[in-house]
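#structure-requests
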Amino acid sequence: MNDDQLLRYSRHILLNELGVEGQEKLLASHALVIGAGGLGSPVALYLASAGVGHITLVDHDTVDATNLQRQIAHDLSRVGLPKAQSAKVAMHAINPEVRIDTVLQRADATLLDQLVPLAQVVLDCTDNFATRHAINRACVKHRVPLVSGAAIRFDGQLSVYDRRQEASPCYACVFPDTDGLEEIRCATMGVFAPLVGIVGTMQAAEALKLLAGMGSRLVGRLQMLDGRGMEFTEVQLGRNPACPVCGTPH
């Protein structure tokens, strides 16, 4: 690190758990963020501010005025712009040294097979089950840890799925890919603005710990947040041996 970087990241360097070595790992790392909306906004801003050297941001949508209630990476001046490009502007305003690649298309299986193997961690900041399951399949296939968050109304959840660990479940172990599952979208159900900030910030924290070599203790645990009472509930997760994604083939 140069003198400017030592100054910029000095509060990280002062942490015994991170130090110079951990910060250098962050600077050399690559994170894949899928979704630049409510969850993706705090994720992208914190990863950039913390000095993750290379961030790939995937989002096919554009900024709308209704997004601004909770999607803090965007502002009125960028309504109509692709969300990934808008978030890149905000990220570079904080830390211009970070390399940010934007992909302005939907994250399908073909794209994920190209992008996931290049990253050290994947952050799922999407809002639909089809994409979540596609991300999970790619992360299992390429053995890249997945930090998954969700938020709707006043309810949030967070977990880390890391198939590099034999006992770790994958997303499909916990939320099976069931045909006909009804999607719940914030466009019709609403979402409490700070909730996506809380969950997204926690996603960023888990990703940074993974990238810095500290590991994540959320593997095998599902954290659920009731934003009304500000109460966390935790469920221990086990791997499903019959899971069609990560289970043992017969």
